[in-house]
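S.,

Sequence below, as promised.
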Amino acid sequence: MLDIEELYEGQQVYVIYRNPHTQTVSTIQEALIARHPMDPDQLSLLIHDFYHPIEVDDAIFTTQEEAEGLFQQYML
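The prediction came back faster than expected:
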């Protein structure tokens, strides 16, 4: 799992993403690290054309395999 300090703009990452409409549904999603358009000093996760602020408890991975391993361990 990546630390926030390791992230950089343009980096492709994978996250365990909880569906905002159905809280019991989570999936692994590909995301891009991007500058937030309203706050250029803040890096965000760009998922489904939406900017999500990065928080310290976000599970961010460099590969889909790493994300799947943790997902299998904790979600199933």
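The longest strand covers residues 26-36.

Coffee later?
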